[in-house]
Amino acid sequence: MNWYKREKIAGLPIYSERIVIKKLKRMGCKMIRQIRSSHQIWECPGRGKISLPIHSGGGQDVDPRLLDRLLRQELGVNRNYFARV
Predict the structure, then answer these.
(1) Per-residue pLDDT tens for 65-79?
(2) Which of 66, 67, 63, 61 is closest to 81 using CA atoms?
(3) 20 near 61, Cβ under 8 Å?
């Protein structure tokens, strides 16, 4: 288990917002804009766009169910691939 993974909810690993952003960058995604102060729009080449909720400077955890849905439905990436990035 990696240092950045916390306990699991519904069998899914929990990642902080900062870790999710680092993983998106490793996948080649780029932030194209920020909506107010709570969401960022990320575009991933050949995969699509996602709206990622960011709160209080990126230190909170992203709900694993939301992250799983965003990865599967919007980017076509499964959680195992995302965990390895």
Answers:
(1) 899 999 999 999 988
(2) 67
(3) no
- Would you say residue 43 has pLDDT above 60? yes
1 Cβ contact partners less than 8 Å away, ≥ 6 residues apart: none
Domain boundaries, the chain: 8-84
User: What pTM, to 2 d.p., does this model score?
Assistant: 0.81
CA atoms within 13 A on the CB side of 46: 3
Contact indicator for 85, 25 with CB cutoff of 8 Å: no
In the CATH scheme, what is the homologous superfamily, with its name and number, of domain 8-84? Answer: Hypothetical protein. (3.30.920.30)
Tokens 């050949």 -> residue: 46
